[in-house]
Write a structure and sequence with these properties.
With 391 residues, the chain is of the alpha/beta class. 48% of the residues lie in helices and 7% in strands. Strand 2, helix 13 (233-243) and strand 3 (248-250) form a beta-alpha-beta unit. Helix 3 (50-62) packs across helix 4 and helix 4 (70-78) packs across helix 6.
Length: 391
């Protein structure tokens, strides 16, 4: 028997070395992960749960399942990779790492979905990413003047020089949502936007090439000095894993750290807007960040906590492109909750989530709008009489 690399498949009891042994053996099969898993909620099938998938991983590792087994192919793709299971696991299973190792094996070479191959090839070329900026006008360089987006502080005395802060430009964001980085520059005028930024590597790590994902993260860390601020929760978690959490801050984290006090308010038809949050899975489940974005939203609008705000929206990186039908099934209950809550805005802290919500709300003809946190705070600041006009 040959595997998809052209070599011999392991027989029963032989270990092909696909997975980290300690990570794989940590699971005690308790089942706490089942209620937290979005795909298990859709199907009720054990194989579509984290516990069931780890059972499949063990069978693959032991040689009890052939590498081309159809169930392996289906479940490695069906998983959203949201890591919600990690937050409820009493054994501390690092499921996200196991999933990366699984896809490194399962999605190698021609077995990788073609959409993922195209996106990975595009984002691995900094020149193509920079070209997006020429057309879409994302944030660039130190701002000459920034709108006032924080309440005035007392006059500072002599202070030591602050460490440098670099604003990271996301691959998807700089092309589809350039206003997000421009709004972030208003919120963080002290940040620079170094040129020549490449991809952080999260896309590669989640689509079967974790080695390149790690290389891209380290390369970006060398190019961006000081603290790296990102407006993408998924990028933040990936960079923090490879560069250390002391170097990486998602935007809401960074604003919270520096004591940012939003000014102004967002209004709709003369009243204070009602706004809800859709968590970024990796920001919430991988980094434990939940409070800062909620408090920032509540400072400029009436915050509404949606049922299931902390569960996956179905975007999941390339998932919405690879499995659109399943992606919509995951999203639909959230859209129902948005309609029932009668909110004006659904706030995202990740560009993939923003795209998913915008498309879903548009399909439904909902009056609610999806907006990035940076844009919401900048919108509120422009309502403040003391804030300069938007450039």
């Amino acid at each position: 028997m040959t595997d998809h690399h052209g070599g011999s498949s392991p027989g029963p009891g032989q270990r092909p070395g696909i997975f980290d042994k300690e990570l794989l053996e940590r699971c005690i099969s308790c089942g706490f992960c089942l209620p937290a898993c979005p795909t298990y909620a859709l199907t009720g099938e054990e194989t579509s749960s984290p516990r069931g998938r780890i059972t499949l991983m063990r069978a693959l590792e032991a040689g009890d399942l052939a590498p081309d087994d159809t169930t392996l192919a289906e479940e490695s793709s069906f998983c959203l990779g949201c890591r919600a299971c990690e937050t409820v696991c009493p054994a501390g299973v690092e499921y996200g790492q196991l999933l990366e190792q699984w896809r490194d094996h399962q999605w190698s070479g021609p077995d990788r979905p073609w959409i993922a191959r195209v996106l990975m090839a595009l984002t691995a070329r900094p020149g193509l990413l920079r070209l997006q900026g020429l057309v879409r006008r994302h944030a660039r360089g130190p701002a000459r003047a920034a709108a006032r987006t924080t309440a005035p502080a007392d006059a500072p005395g002599d202070r030591p020089a602050e460490p440098p802060v670099s604003l990271m430009l996301g691959c998807v964001e700089r092309g589809l949502y350039p206003k997000v980085s421009r709004a972030a520059r208003q919120l963080c005028p002290e940040a620079t936007v170094p040129g020549g930024q490449g991809c952080c590597g999260a896309l590669h790590a989640h689509n079967g090439d974790s080695a390149t994902g790690a290389e891209l993260a380290r390369a970006l860390g060398e190019r961006l000095p000081g603290t790296i601020v990102t407006t993408a929760g998924g990028c933040a978690a990936h960079l923090a894993h490879h560069l250390g959490e002391d170097r990486v801050r998602e935007l809401s984290q960074y604003l919270d750290d520096k004591g940012h006090r939003p000014v102004g308010q967002v209004t709709v038809n003369g009243r204070r807007a009602r706004a809800a949050l859709q968590d970024s899975c990796h920001l919430r489940n991988g980094m434990g960040v939940t409070r800062p974005p909620r408090e920032l939203i509540a400072a400029v609008a009436d915050y509404v906590e949606l049922p299931g705000a902390g569960t996956c929206c179905g975007a999941a990186g390339t998932y919405a492109l690879l499995r659109p039908d399943d992606s919509r099934k995951v999203l639909d209950p959230k859209l129902d909750a948005v309609d029932e809550a009668d909110v004006d805005y659904v706030v995202a802290v990740n560009p993939g989530c923003l795209r998913q919500l915008q498309q879903g709300l548009r399909r439904r003809g909902s009056r609610a709008k999806a907006i990035h946190l940076a844009e919401l705070l900048a919108l509120a600041a422009r309502s403040d009489p003391g804030a300069p006009a938007r450039p």
